[in-house]
Amino acid sequence: MEKKFLFFDIDDTLTTGGMGSFIPDSARNTLKALKKNGHVVAIATGRPYAMSKDVAKDLEIDSFVCNGGNTVVYEGEKIYNEPLDQAHVKELLRECIAFGFPYCISQADDFFFLTKDMKALPKLDNDFLSQFIQEADFDPEHLTQVKRLMIYVNKEEQKKLTSFPDLVPQRYDDAYVMIEPDDKFKGIKKMMEILKEPIEDVVVFGDGENDIKMFQQAPISIAVGNAIDELKALASYVTDRSDEDGIQKACLHFGWISPEDISK
Fold this sequence. Notes:
- Keywords: Hydrolase.
- This is Cof-type HAD-IIB family hydrolase.
- This protein folds into two domains: 5-81 and 183-263, Rossmann fold (3-Layer(aba) Sandwich); 86-179, Hypothetical Protein, Haloacid Dehalogenase-like Hydrolase, Chain: A, domain 2.
- It contains ten helices and 14 strands.
- It has an eight-stranded mixed sheet. It has a four-stranded antiparallel sheet with strand order 6-9-11-10, covered by helices on one side. It has a two-stranded parallel ribbon with strand order 7-8.
- The chain is of the alpha/beta class.
């Protein structure tokens, strides 16, 4: 059997319903069977490192791509870690200041965001990020390691912002937009270079907007049934929903595992 390097998105791909949901037993058993059959199993997620490492540990995966492709962990060690394009960040912050849009920034691979004025930030209902925002004194013109930004604008106001031409803004709440890395395949390529393995053996699984660049570049791309239509149109194969054993069914379809592997 030809060895494959399979990269799985976490939220709504491995899991059943976004952040805080669970990974079905069928997906867990499939990952174990893939590894037993000699395939390499990894994660490719938009989550920062702090929100990825526990999932990886739970799944007994020690190499993964996180932070939207800007961070690569190999055998438990960060071997590649870069921020957003800082020139674009500074231009975007100048726009926020000019328009009076509140914002906060993250400079580390953790949960914490920093802002210059807590009073300017609207209270976020049902948003776990809100408890990790802290006030800090910083000069936007001298920032050098911004990993992601939260800008408090609605969809209409967002149209005024033009300084993130190469990024897909993510909206997890109507109150704000998140500017974060979105080319997971960049990190996948970096890992394959380190492993000295052919990129042709890569398989990716995903469901959302931040998987689009990955699907555009991967040799084999598999969309779960609950994926957005744009991603399904790019996919090599569309499987069932993540909560209907989609991961397992796809791996059975391609012959990377057998029914006997998952019945043991």
